[in-house]
Amino acid sequence: MAPERVLVVYASDQGSTREIADFIGMQLRVSGFAVDVRVAGEQPDASGYDAVVLGSAVHDRALLASAERFARRNAEVLRARPVWLFTVGIGPSLRGPVGGLLRRMVPPKIARVRDLLAPRDYHAFAGVVSRSAFSAASRAVLELCGGRYGDLRDWRVIGSWAAGIAADLRAVGPVRPGGGSR
Question: Which of 43, 49, 34 has the alpha carbon at shortest distance from 67?
């Protein structure tokens, strides 16, 4: 029996992460799960859910503060449930030798939250990169690292990741209030 309730919680700055969270929520609903998509800043209670997907935009190589607060406040509950973590930022869209190295790195601040939650999977997605959001110096660094501008989200990859979550959830079974599967 599949978990019945899934919380998709996100922290978004410009809206790109919100759209990805909504898409993941929709994919999980289509797969038969009851899904609530909530803003991390509202600090929803994770204890009423069988599984949680947490997503955040990345700024300064870290999760947004509201996503990190949600993770830390709910860490005990989250460690007792299936959890998936995703981030949205520039890193996954970088190309070239320098970009390739940076793309494979998990920034230490994100790694600490990932390690705290021990998610079943962590995935970094490319987001929307607006040229106007960068100073001239930042644009030069971005271009040296193989960065580019535009909507760089790969909805096929995001959909595949969401389908993997659904398949994993079907295999897990509902979580008892004290943790563990029924």
Answer: 43
